[in-house]
Design goal:
Low-confidence stretches: 15-21
Radius of gyration: 18 Å
Organism: Algoriphagus aquaeductus
Keywords: Signal
Mean pLDDT: 85
Protein name: Outer membrane protein with beta-barrel domain
Strand content: over 45%
Number of domains: 1
CATH class: Mainly Beta
Pfam families: OMP_b-brl (PF13505)
Length: 191
Amino acid sequence: MRKILLIAALFAANAFAVEAQSGLGIRGGVNFFNFGGNDVSENNYTNRAGFHAGAYASLGGGAIAIEPGIFYSVKGTQNEDAINSRAILDYVDVPVLLRLRAGEGFNVFAGPQISFLTRSKIEGDFGGSTVSLETGNIRETDTGLVFGVGYNMPKGFNIQGSYDYGMTPVFKDSNADVYNRGFKLSFGYTF
């Protein structure tokens, strides 16, 4: 938790230092995450809806911008089994994106992301009740790539679609080839 607070503080200090030459913004939306990888059976898992919300800084005013951000993001997966089990994984995502303006309002972006686990639990439905268990078998950090497309609307509003491609196995103490993978649809506002 101390690492997360330190990174958040460094990000905030950096964002305020460059505010005069860039834009600060807020962004949030819906996630559709699942587990991906060679050890995931396509028939067992389905996308699980979650959300994300946070802030970003847009550094650079021309055709190219660097965009660091910090977001709270709920990921995981759902299993269509007898108990409707689901993994709920909460992260603080810290992406650093390279954004290229590709025409009037349109842009494409890509970059690395590191995520810090804040909570993990497994839920299931038993006899009309939901049972929840905290799990300690999830790695504390996740690394990956983010890429997508966006559109800047008038008056600072923006919309984007992105894909998170996790590259660190989800489970620790396991050789399972299982990763966080998912789509995000986001709405934002740049001040």
